[in-house]
């Protein structure tokens, strides 16, 4: 089965072709970050308009790279939610109309299930069950994963997501948008000079809280005006230490509490080198295994959606099944999913 994947939930248009016999054949991506950087964050209306411009050329590119034609596609998987409604509608209406014209079925994919399964696209994928740390721009969750659609929430953020905390802190340091990669780059030259709190480290549960850290950073920033480059780097260093330490320790607690020895990490913050360094060391000490997606599949992409769709072929729906209608789910809880 050849599955076309379509991702348009936020500010990346992603298209990919996944073959259930041969794996990922191709993927094409356009990120809108440069367009939104000027505004310091994603502008939903601009995002939707740009998805419209990109979706067809990217599909042509993905088909060409895989040496396939539209007629070779057996099903279309697309992100139905959660995300920006206008942005989701572009991918959804594109996928549904293409499927209608080709007379092939569609598969509705939950964006976070896409992120969650992205590490399984790599060689030697971990087997179920495992603990998953999902750390993206909008989410910071620990889950027990027993199979596709079998997700038990172990811990969640009480306020900001990890990626959001990176972005907001980067903004306080004048690093622009999106801040995660810029902040972690700056942290490389920073030294241990400040001490920030490690929120909820000893809370006895697997929840996170990152908004207080941002406030502590603001206090440091105010105390050190005008900010010189060295101070900025030292703050970035300590912020990254605080976030990655909390994430690592909670991951290890989740492994201990579930009795599992397999951890997977996904979402944009999963690209963070310091987080990977700490998780690699901690899991090695406990003889556990940790898996990540390749760097480009940590943030939004079409490959993870095509793959999640391929894992849910049983959920395929034809146009007549759906009575020729479709919808998006801007808010959609992962725990509502069921096994295919
Ligand atoms: P969601 O999937 O929850 O709806 P999203 O799709 O916006 O959110 P992703 O694309 O998975 O999130 O990740 C983007 C986030 O990851 C941003 O907050 C970005 O700053 C952060 N990020 C990306 N690379 C890094 C890095 N190297 N270090 C820290 N954070 C990073
Ligand atoms: Mg994005
Ligand atoms: Fe995402």
Automatic annotation (TrEMBL):
CDD domains registered for this protein in UniProt: ASKHA_NBD_TsaD_bac
Alphabetical list of InterPro entries matching this protein: ATPase_NBD (IPR043129), Gcp-like_dom (IPR000905), KAE1/TsaD (IPR017861), TsaD (IPR022450)
Residues the record lists as binding substrate: 134-138, 167, 180, 272
Keyword tags: Acyltransferase, Cytoplasm, Iron, Metal-binding, Transferase, tRNA processing
Enzyme Commission code(s) on record: 2.3.1.234
Catalysed reaction, written as an equation: L-threonylcarbamoyladenylate + adenosine(37) in tRNA = N(6)-L-threonylcarbamoyladenosine(37) in tRNA + AMP + H(+)
Cofactor names: Fe(2+)
Cofactor binding mode and count: Binds 1 Fe(2+) ion per subunit.
Subcellular location: Cytoplasm
CC per GO annotation: cytoplasm
Broad class of enzyme this protein falls into: transferase
Residue span, Gcp-like domain: 24-307
GO molecular function: iron ion binding; tRNA N(6)-L-threonylcarbamoyladenine synthase activity
Residue sites binding Fe cation per the record: 111, 115, 300
Single biological process term from Gene Ontology: tRNA threonylcarbamoyladenosine modification
Function: Required for the formation of a threonylcarbamoyl group on adenosine at position 37 (t(6)A37) in tRNAs that read codons beginning with adenine. Is involved in the transfer of the threonylcarbamoyl moiety of threonylcarbamoyl-AMP (TC-AMP) to the N6 group of A37, together with TsaE and TsaB. TsaD likely plays a direct catalytic role in this reaction.
Annotated family: Belongs to the KAE1 / TsaD family.
Name of protein: tRNA N6-adenosine threonylcarbamoyltransferase
């Amino acid at each position: 089965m050849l599955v076309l994947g379509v991702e348009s939930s936020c500010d990346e248009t992603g298209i990919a072709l996944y073959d259930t016999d041969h794996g990922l054949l191709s993927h094409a991506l356009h990120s809108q970050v440069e367009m939104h950087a000027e505004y310091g964050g994603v502008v939903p209306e601009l995002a939707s308009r740009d998805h419209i411009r990109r979706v067809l050329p990217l599909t042509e590119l993905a088909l060409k790279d895989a040496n396939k034609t539209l007629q070779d596609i057996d099903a279309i998987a697309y992100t139905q939610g959660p995300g920006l409604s206008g942005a989701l509608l572009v991918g959804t209406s594109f996928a549904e109309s293409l499927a209608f014209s080709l007379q092939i079925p569609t598969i509705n994919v939950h964006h976070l299930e896409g992120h969650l399964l992205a590490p399984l696209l790599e060689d030697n994928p971990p087997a179920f069950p495992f603990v998953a740390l999902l750390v993206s721009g909008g989410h910071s969750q620990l889950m027990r994963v027993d199979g596709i659609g079998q997700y038990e929430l172990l811990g969640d953020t009480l306020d900001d997501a990890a990626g959001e905390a990176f972005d907001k802190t980067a903004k306080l340091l004048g690093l622009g948008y999106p801040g995660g990669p810029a902040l972690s780059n700056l942290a490389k030259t920073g030294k241990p000079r400040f001490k920030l709190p490690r929120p909820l480290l000893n809370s006895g549960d697997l929840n996170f809280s990152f908004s207080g850290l941002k406030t502590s950073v603001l206090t440091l920033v105010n105390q050190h005006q005008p900010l010189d480059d060295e101070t900025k780097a030292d703050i970035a260093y300590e912020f990254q230490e605080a976030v990655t330490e909390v994430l690592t320790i909670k991951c290890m607690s989740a492994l201990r509490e579930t009795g599992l020895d397999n951890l997977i990490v996904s979402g944009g913050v999963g690209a963070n080198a310091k987080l990977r360094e700490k998780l690699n060391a901690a899991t090695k000490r406990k003889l556990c295994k940790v898996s990540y997606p390749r760097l480009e599949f940590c943030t939004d992409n079409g490959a993870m959606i095509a793959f999640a769709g391929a894992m849910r072929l049983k959920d395929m729906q034809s146009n007549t099944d759906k009575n020729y209608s479709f919808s998006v789910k801007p808010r959609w809880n992962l725990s509502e999913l069921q096994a295919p």
